[in-house]
Amino acid sequence: MKTFNELNIEASVLKSLAEMGFESATPIQEQAIPTALAGKDMIGQAQTGTGKTTAFGVPMIQNIDPSNRSIQGIVIAPTRELAIQVAEELNRIGQHKNVHTVPVYGGQDIQRQIRALKRRPQLVAATPGRLLDHIRRKTIRLDSIRTAVLDEADEMLNMGFIEDIEAILAEIKQEHQTLLFSATMPKRIQNLAERFMNEPEMIRVKAKQLTVDHIDQFYFVVKENAKFDALCRLLDTESPDLAIIFGRTKKRVDELTSGLLKRGYSAEGIHGDIQQSKREKVISRFKEQTTEILVATDVAARGLDITGVTHVYNFDLPQDPESYVHRIGRTGRAGKKGQAYSFATPREIDHLRSIEKLIKRKIEEKAVPSYSDVVEGLQETAVEDLLQTIWTDESKKYHRSAEEILSKEDAVDVVAAAIKLLTKEPNQAPVKLTAVEPIRAKKSYGGNRKNSYRGNRSGGRGKGNQGRNDRRGGSNRGGSGGGQGRGRTSKNQRKFTR
Ligand SMILES: Nc1ncnc2c1ncn2[C@@H]1O[C@H](COP(=O)(O)OP(=O)(O)OP(=O)(O)O)[C@@H](O)[C@H]1O
Ligand SMILES: [Mg+2]
Fold first, then answer.
1. Do 215-371+428-435+477-495 and 4-204 fall under one CATH topology?
2. For the Helicase C-terminal domain, which residue ranges apply (predicted)?
């Protein structure tokens, strides 16, 4: 493992990296930074959470002339939240070099973005639609671009985005460098990518599996109408610090969120029909751990880096096997451990196998916790809360009453009664979700991927499908995503056990 000092990075950038707390370069950073600094086009593939943002951010910023106040680099990302996050990271890396990045994305007042662009940033992190809008209004000019990055490149070059990307890249007429990054890069997309690039170098961080090995992966065979209770049982037995639950459609996410709120969990939903300002609030409440459960469509599957996510639940399996890799990659980041649980209905087992084939690893089957497991889990949570209260010294003013009780009663009886009172009953409030159809694996998956699940994608827009996921996550038609939960126990109180 190399330190950043060994990678020919200039002092101002090194200073930022040190302040960000990065000591040594991750493998993708070690390999991609020198290649990108040499001005080459490249495709970088490395597992989720391994620092790809810095791998393109550092060379991009190093190549910028800070005294030139025109836009010299763009990063294009598939979702608004990711564009915002990438801009934040670029601003951190560029802070001592005076390199400024402005995020540009749909759903935010365009005049506000135009004002920010007038302050002459050197970098822009954007979603494709809004970027094109600015190009057409001439509020963004691409004639000084030296580096163009497609983050989540395979997604950006897939249906739904490809036309916009072609239109954007066609606007960059002068010589420039193109960098593509993702944790997944299907061969078909890689071939397509080469059309946009000049003799690209393929930098793949060697890994036996596509998914990170410190994410434990399990699946549960559950009938469609039993999924919600199974989910609650898992939440009660494990009481995750921060969890993301993926549902297949916007409606599903809304129903799941209200169901969880009804049962007393702290949950909020995010999908493409939720107003942008609300989406940003939902994400920031989740980041600061005010909300413990984020319920999401695939709009949150890619790139989001939220510290402290311990669990990812695939309430519904994703249609694309690649999406599984990205969804579960929201946990287990930067070397931390994570848990990934997936529900498969009996008719979806073949589809699950196709996911295993892509990730080159077995996902282990587990049984849904029983009622008594749940009671035990809730009791453990009560004990943790009790201990935490002792350790944080929050209970001094109760000492007199405690001494009084202990002078009359047996100590074990007293503590047992306290635990009993603190232990929550499993909440069985009735919740009914609209059923969704099982996802079928395409028979040709293993033999001919070209025509396999990708075909599913176009088919997915047709009738009978429960509505494709809002991968673009862009529409802005209002809708609701559930409110703030009551919050069972503050997770800050429970941190010490995990
Ligand atoms: N050299 C480093 N040392 C320590 N932490 C790092 C380093 N580089 C990046 N990180 C941290 O690792 C986390 C993941 O980084 P990043 O979001 O860039 O991953 P990624 O590879 O882009 O993942 P994804 O495929 O999910 O988009 C971030 O919290 C980042 O701050
Ligand atoms: Mg990333």
1. yes
2. 214-375
